[in-house]
Amino acid sequence: MTTADGALTTYKACAAEKLVGEFVLTSDDMLKSTALEASAVKNGVDPIRVPIEVMKFGACRMMQPPRVAQPAQLDPQDLGKVTIAGLKVPVTLNKSSANVYTTPSLPHPGFDEGAAITLQAAGAGLYGPLTLRGWGVAPLVLASDPLVVKDGQPVTLTWPAPAKAGPARVTINFTLNRHGNVDTWFECEVPDTGNFTIDSAAITALFTKDVSGFPSVTITRQSADSTTVKDGCVQFLVKTASVRAIQIPGYSWCHGDDAECPAGKKCADDLVCR
Description:
Number of helices: 1
Shape: globular
Number of domains: 1
Low-confidence stretches: none
Oligomer: single chain
C-alpha cells in the first residue's frame, strides 16, 4: 500500500517459491557504495533459489539448501526502459544484451532516510509495465566484536534502531554451519525495534545440525514491494546489511592451515580445528 503521494506504507516481499525476479538496491556504508545488484526477471521460478524449511520457531524458520543440482534453464526478460526516482539523482538502469539490469554510478548515500523511491519498468515482451515502491532505509552497523553463542542458551541480537522505521523490516540470517556437509541456518523476519531474541530451543535445534568454521549473523534492514506477473512475483528491495562474526566457546576456526590451530589439533575440511 502507498500514501496519496505514492510513499510505501507496507512490507510486501515475494514468497521464494513464487519469485521470478527482483531489483535490489543496496546501500553499503563500509564500501561507501549505493548500487543496484545485477537484477533480472525470468520467465519462471528457479528451484535452486527456493530453500527448504526444516522447522519453525516463532518468527524464525530453520532452512536448508534446495535439493537441486543445477539452475533451471530460464531466460531473463526484456522489461524495456527501467527508471528509479526518489534517489539523490534520478537514474535510468543499464540493460545488458542478456536483459540484466544495473545502475550507473551513484553517489553515496544514494538516498535520504525515509525517501519515497519508485521503480518503473516500461514493459516489453512477456511482462507489461511495472511500478514498485521503496523506502529510504537508515544505515545499519553492527558491533565489531564476535557474538558469543552457546548451545542451549537464548541469543539476543541488537542493532541500532532507526529514528523512524517506516515500512521497513529486519531480516536475520543466522548460521552455524556454512561450511559443513549441509548448510543449515535460521531466517527470521522481525520488526525494526533494535533487538530480537532467538530462544534456547531454537539454538539447541540449530546445534544438532552441526557447527562448521566461521559462523556469522547477517542483519538486513529493508523495504519490500512486489507485484504479480504472468509467471510469478517480482519484488523491489531497498536494503542495507551488516555482518557480525559468531564465536562458540570451545571451538577454533581455520582457513585450511593446521598452523592456525591449537597444539594437537588439525584444520578439518569444515574449517574447524579438531
